[in-house]
UniProtKB/TrEMBL annotation:
Protein name: MFS transporter
Pfam families cross-referenced by the UniProt entry: MFS_3
SUPFAM superfamilies per record: MFS general substrate transporter
Membrane topology label: Multi-pass membrane protein
PANTHER family tied to this protein: ENTEROBACTIN EXPORTER ENTS, INTEGRAL MEMBRANE EFFLUX PROTEIN-RELATED
Organism whose genome encodes this protein: Plectonema radiosum NIES-515
Subcellular location: Cell membrane
Source organism, top-level taxon: Bacteria
Residues annotated as domain Major facilitator superfamily (MFS) profile: 1-220
Ranges that cross the membrane: 32-50, 62-83, 95-115, 121-137, 158-181, 193-215, 244-269, 281-299, 311-331, 389-418
Protein keywords: Cell membrane, Membrane, Transmembrane, Transmembrane helix, Transport
InterPro entries: MFS_dom, MFS_trans_sf, TM_effector
Length: 431
């Protein structure tokens, strides 16, 4: 006999929603958001592979490659507190529109610099502008995204959110690699070897702008706090007081800082594996292919019952496959290890994003997203600089293998300092 208990019906309805792998994507504005995010990140990936290939081709310097990451992370570190405050106080959609346009203009600037063979510092200026745009885009976009969906779809949305980034990371490098190869075949490679690639990136970024403008303005609770040290630091204070969030993002920071090998892929492709730009595109795309496969598995699977242990084990696995990649001399093995690294990293990304959003009130989401963005950007861009510096001092193989070992040691340290992270249960129970 069917029960008339409204709480039971509510629970059954929520359970049914969780079993729908496409639940979040059925919401129009969230779907537009994901499309815009996919296009924006695809433009970034196309541009980044072009920057890495062209600068290393022009200079042969690992330090110049490392500088690509450093010059983009500096404005993020400098502007993060004010960017978070702006995201909580003003229209988040409008902030996204402006920052996406700035990214488009930055890619066009790189096209001009490539065509004219401008000095390296002008390339860095364009990348600095991109970093500044990203500093404001991330807290605004992350905060806006969670306003477009109900709380019980956070985990589902986090998986699709990660999937959009990974899908862009598959198509972006592939498109960029083929575009560079075609440009070298049919054009004067010594003059503007990546010009067309930057123009393609700018066009795709503009399409992202179009998608974002179609999103309806959602209802939100904006902060009314005036600009002050207290208001700016509220996000950092919240993260510090929530130790599980602090542990999760600290783990991500140092794991990717030490274990990330993507900044050195142009060196591995050209000098160690001895392959060309097309194969470099495959190498760049491999982590995202692995992450996409894992995303499909996660979105069709029940919520993780032991999220803490899954987080720690996935990062340990990330360190192990990084070590094997560093020692590999075969393209197939290298591609496999990079794919596994992406799959394992995606598990930690979904857990961290869900944990942060479930425990953060809406009026603080911009500032907390900004703090989270610093950790992510620091791990990616500073990780690229660290890898470039280590490769310049000790060689690329030692840099990558040592980074993998460092990642494993970080997991041990985090599990020791924040013992509660390993006891974290099912995240959906907090929704």
């Amino acid at each position: 006999m069917p029960s008339s208990d409204p709480n039971l019906k509510k629970h059954l309805k929520a359970s049914a929603v969780k079993q729908d792998a496409f639940a979040a994507l059925r919401i129009r504005d969230y779907r537009l958001f994901v499309i815009g995010r996919l296009l924006l990140f695809t433009g970034f990936q196309i541009r980044n592979i072009a920057v890495g290939w062209e600068l290393y081709d022009r200079t042969g310097s690992a330090m110049v490659l490392g500088g690509v990451g450093l010059v983009q992370v500096l404005p993020i570190l400098a502007l993060t507190l004010i960017a978070g405050h702006v995201a909580d106080k003003y229209n988040r959609k409008h902030i996204m529109i402006v920052t996406v346009l700035l990214s488009c203009l930055s890619s066009l600037g790189l096209a001009v610099a490539s065509y004219t063979q401008a000095p390296i510092y002008l390339v860095y200026v364009c990348l600095f502008v991109t970093g500044a745009a990203r500093a404001f885009n991330k807290p605004a976009s992350d905060s806006l995204m969670w306003q477009l969906i109900p709380n019980n779809l956070f985990t589902n949305a986090a998986t699709w959110n990660s999937s959009s980034f990974q899908l862009a990371s598959v198509f972006g490098p592939a498109i960029g690699g083929y575009a560079i190869a075609l440009n070298a075949r049919y054009a004067n490679a010594s003059l503007g070897s990546a010009t067309r690639v930057y123009v393609i990136a700018a066009f795709i970024t503009f399409l992202s702008f179009v998608s974002v403008t179609l999103i309806k303005k959602p209802k939100t609770i904006l902060s009314k706090e005036p600009l002050s040290i207290k208001a700016l630091s509220a996000g950092a204070k919240f993260v510090w007081q929530n130790q599980l969030i602090l542990a999760a993002i600290t783990l991500d920071l140092f794991a990717v800082l030490f274990g990330g090998a993507t900044a050195l892929l142009p060196i591995f492709a050209k000098d160690i594996l001895r392959v060309g730009p097309i194969e470099l595109g495959y190498l760049q795309a491999a982590p995202s292919i692995g992450a996409l496969i894992m995303a499909v598995i996660l979105v069709h699977s029940p919520p993780l019952r032991k999220a803490g242990k899954a987080l720690l084990l996935s990062v340990i696995g990330f360190g192990v496959v990084t070590i094997i990649f560093g020692l590999s001399r075969h393209l197939t093995l290298s591609l496999l290890m990079l794919a596994l690294s992406g799959a394992l990293d995606n598990i930690s990304v979904v857990i961290r994003q869900t944990l942060v959003q479930i425990r953060t009130p809406d009026y603080l989401r911009g500032r907390v997203a900004a703090i989270n963005g610093v950790f992510i950007s620091a791990s990616n861009e500073l990780g690229g600089f660290e890898s470039g510096l280590a490769a310049a001092l000790f060689g690329p193989v030692v840099a990558v293998v040592g980074g993998g070992i460092g990642t494993i040691l970080v997991v041990i340290a985090v599990a020791s300092i924040w013992s509660g992270i390993g006891k974290l249960g099912a995240l959906h129970e907090y929704e």
